[in-house]
Amino acid sequence: MSAFSDALSVTSGGLMSQAARLRVVSENIANVDTPGYHRKLLSFDVTKDDSSLSRVEPGDVDLSRVPLDEVYDPSHPLADETGKYLGSNVDLMIELADAREAQRSYEANLKMFDQTRQMSSALLDLLRR
Predict the structure, then answer these.
(1) Of the residues 85, 105, 120, 124, which has the maximum number of CB atoms within 10 A of its CB?
(2) Is 90 within 8 Å of 6 (Cβ atoms)?
(3) How far apart are alpha carbons 15 and 34 in whole angstroms?
(4) pTM of the model
(5) Torsion-angle region of residue 29: left (phi > 0), alpha (psi -120 to 50) or beta?
(6) DSSP secondary-structure letter at 40?
């Protein structure tokens, strides 16, 4: 049963990581038009335990160092004397692609979790006979 619990542990780490990634991407999408907003980037940490089992965990959230876009809108309250203000550095197309990738990775981890659970249940049924 240790192999099953190891598989469940690995897939649960993947589920938590992709859920955190979806949260960060959704925050970026929500703030695509917020002046001065810096895109958030989530890193993943790979940890190994004493059984040499690798597990992925969500890491630190960093801010993108890409310069903010200058937006020309003289009627905006944040505009300077030239009529420009600093917008966000979030690219909506990149965020949507990241969201789709994170969603598919989450679904793959969920399917693996479910298959592992079904296999362990089937093994227990065989052992009961």
Answers:
(1) 85
(2) no
(3) 29
(4) 0.85
(5) alpha
(6) E
